[in-house]
Amino acid sequence: VKPGGAIERLFDNYENLYADLSAFSGYNAMTRDPEYTQEFVSRFSSRLLWGTDIVSPGDALPQVKWVKSLDISSELKRRITSENARRLLSLV
After folding, report:
1. Contact at 8 Å (CB) between 46 and 84?
2. What is the DSSP letter of 49?
3. Alpha carbons 58 and 5: distance in angstroms, whole number
4. 8, exposed or middle or buried, with CB in 10 Å at 0-12, 13-18, 19+?
5. Which residues contact 40 (CB under 8 A, 6 or more apart)?
6. C or N terminus of the chain, fewer CB within 10 Å?
7. SS3 (DSSP) at 58
């Protein structure tokens, strides 16, 4: 994820595109440039998803700490951690 990069261009062109942040690759992409990430997350918060289907006791989940550390509203954090997935899966 970088200013003017492929992900930003794809998001600008395809309203039905979502990004899954649950794997380490998503976390890695979002933590490379913290300053830009704040802007990216605020801009595309309605299309970012975090969730996981496998969690075991003791698993490191740096994504949780990262989402908590973002300087965004609790509403945007809720979107990323639950509301977007619920809406996408028609669970709302």
Report:
1. yes
2. E
3. 35
4. middle
5. 1, 8, 30
6. C
7. coil
Count other Cβ atoms within 10 Å, centred on residue 32. Answer: 11
pLDDT digits (tens, 9 = 90+) for 34-86: 889 999 999 999 999 987 767 788 888 888 889 999 999 999 999 999 999 99
Determine contact, residues 80/49, Cβ cutoff 8 Å: yes
Note the pTM of the prediction, 2 decimals.
0.84
Contact 72, 38 (CB under 8 A): yes
CA distances from 37 to 18, 24, 32, 73 (A): 16, 16, 8, 14
Report the DSSP beta bridge partners of residue 20: 49
Inter-residue contact 22 to 31 (CB < 8 Å): no
| Paired tokens of 62 | 């740096």
Q: Which helix (H) or strand (E) holds 19?
A: strand 19-20
